[in-house]
Amino acid sequence: MKPAAALRDAALAALVAFGLFAPLVGLRTEVAEGGLALRGRWDDVAWLCLLAFLGRFALMALAGRRLHVSVPAWLHRASRYAVPCCLGLVVVLPWLPFVERYELDLGILVLTYVMLGWGLNIVVGLAGLLDLGYVAFYAVGAYSYALLSLSFGLSFWVCLPLAGILAAFAGVLLGFPVLRLRGDYLAIVTLAFGEIIRVVLTNWVSLTGGPNGLSGIPRPGLFGLAFTSEEGGFADFFGLEYDPVHRVIFLYYLILGLALLTNWVTLRLRRQPLGRAWEALREDEIACRALGINVTVTKLTAFAIGAMFAGFAGSFFATRQAFISPESFTFIESAIILAIVVLGGMGSQLGVAIAALLLIGGTELFRDLAEWRMLIFGAAMVVIMVVRPRGLVGTRTPSIALGERRAIGGNYVSEGH
Amino acid sequence: MAYALQQLINGVSLGMIYGLIAVGYTMVYGIIGMINFAHGDVFMVGAFVSLITVLLLGIGGGAAGPGALLLVLLAAMAVTALYGWTVERVAYRPLRGSFRLAPLISAIGMSILLQNYVQVAQGARVKPTGTLVPGGVTLMQSEGFNVQFSYVQMLICVVTLGVLAGFTLLVTRTPLGRAMRACEQDRKMAALLGIDTDRIISLTFVIGAALAAVAGCMYLLRYGVIDFYIGFLAGVKAFTAAVLGGIGSLPGAVLGGLLIGLIETFWSAYFSAQYKDVAAFSILILTLVFMPTGLLGRQEVEKV
């Protein structure tokens, strides 16, 4: 493009930016005596307009020029070992010298989202059912564990499968009415379902404690050994000096185990008739029916198994925080989990893990800028989607192949209903 | 009886606001087949621009004249329309023709972005303005209960009906409206016949955002308190309204909005105010399950 045209375009962008930012950034409403008052911030507007001008100009200058990055052969060969290496790193992470309490907590958070992403991947990535209310099952799992352990004194290890079963039951409950829906309708009904669960949790005060939530949720132990400084605790039994980090390390391995379980089950299911039916359903529902696949059962199992893993993750969340309230289960959580699945590349297990690390770990870098964090998060979602609509990992491994198993492009995979 | 009449008035004025937002959803869905998740937040931006204009004109805290209110409305519509245009240009246009989930995720990202942008730019605290249009008419009096039809509610009804009448004329009588309907029926064919579909889609977003701005302005006048989070719930309910009326159908969106407003108001008046959102969402689910095309929608044909 000619420089003059690019300049004119950039000037237009700056003008639009002025129109956008002048009222909302330039004039800030503030609570003053006798009502609200306005405070001008015109320097910020000027900076934003300049930014829009330069950004647009740079975009125009780069347009038409394709960036070609060729991957060297040795890197291609080395990439085969990337997954085992990363897994090894994740396993030894708590023992690395620079890893402190904070890094461990961050690791637990990222792994929780990896697990949720893998769980949702079953529903969205494999079965092709768009679910915007996934956090409801997470909430069901968390509240199941909290209520079972607080009212009946059951231990974490007993509650974990129970929470999974209850969440799976909720999944079937949601699955039944939405069997006939597809696409955006399905998305909006699942969203409504998630919101209903949250509103009920907020208002059923006698059971859930309402907006105040439930606190004092028991911590899990390792084969009956509690992580306390008392006699008979974990440290005492093994003759170690008591250190609160022991429990954090235990929780880290717990969520790592749960996440890997999710991954393993998914990978195994993909080779079985059920998993193949899911993928076939995603590709073409009518063909599935014609071939005699029971669409109802296939969809319900996808919802149930996806929800079960969310239930596991939810009870882990409850036991880790020792406190839960409806605030942790808002729509934004569902959106984040779905974003992890889609940004990673639907159906790609590795992509989901990378996206969780990028989005959750990445925004954690901005934790000091509390208000800006979600702003950057939203912008990142838009930018990644615009640049890579098929997700970060652009290839998929087919479940069955004739002869050699080879990675194929993501755009050969259908996105489902 | 008097109580029910009062709820009817409240429900209709709330329903008008939902209807205005729902028109934006249904238009966008009709033309490009996506849920514009950021539309609720565009409504919120409209409410904020109205608030800022009110303060700029110095009419906050007291009664405002009709001229000033018209100015507020026009300013909100202009700025919000620009927001609608920018959202489409930045987040949706590059993804046109891409796979279906991409614009949905991009829209959710845009919704998060707009919400937090307003929070950063304007602060997280709620913004009270006080009553801008005080007073009203007492319609009837029985058993010590006054049925009030306030001037604000009258204004909402008049402005909404006026705007919707103008909008209907635009869609049914002008070349632009014809082009929009053509794009809705078959975008590829419309493009082949020489319609600049990109421009029509942009204009759809602009008009939808302007209608959302009217809703935002009315919301501000009616409730006198806004914050950066009002867009989410209003957006979901307006979408419910659009689905209930039959998505893609413009009269359906207004009808759905009125129904949702009435259901919500009567539910909170007679059953439980805490569970009014559950009522709205349950209706959404029931509609989709038993009548997926809505009240005035077209039957969709399943093709192989």
Q: What count of helical segments of chain B does DSSP give?
A: 11
The structural class of chain B is mainly alpha
Radius of gyration of chain B: 19 Å
Average pLDDT reading of chain A: 83
Features:
heterodimer; A: 417 residues; mainly alpha; 2 domains; two-stranded antiparallel ribbon; two-stranded antiparallel sheet; 17 helices; B: 304 residues; 11 helices; 4 strands; 72% helix
Your description of this structure?
The complex is a heterodimer of chains A (417) and B (304). By secondary structure, chain A is mostly helical. Chain A has 2 domains: 3-62; 85-412, no CATH class. Chain A has helices spanning 3-24, 42-62, 73-78, 82-92, 101-126, 135-152, 156-175, 183-203, 205-208, 234-237, 245-270, 273-283, 285-290, 295-321, 331-344, 349-364, 370-387, and strands at 27-32, 35-40, 214-215, 323-324, 395-396, 408-409. Chain A has a two-stranded antiparallel sheet with strand order 1-2. In chain A, strands 3-4 form a two-stranded antiparallel ribbon. Chain A has a two-stranded antiparallel sheet with strand order 5-6. In chain A, helix 6 (135-152) crosses helix 14, helix 11 (245-270) packs across helix 12 (273-283) and helix 15 (331-344) packs across helix 16. The two termini of chain A are 40 Å apart. Chain B is mostly helical and 304 residues long. In chain B, 72% of the residues lie in helices and 6% in strands. Classes of the chains: A mainly alpha (417), B mainly alpha (304). At the A-B interface, helix 1, strand 1, strand 2, helix 8 and helix 15 of A face helix 2, helix 3, helix 4, strand 1 and helix 9 of B.
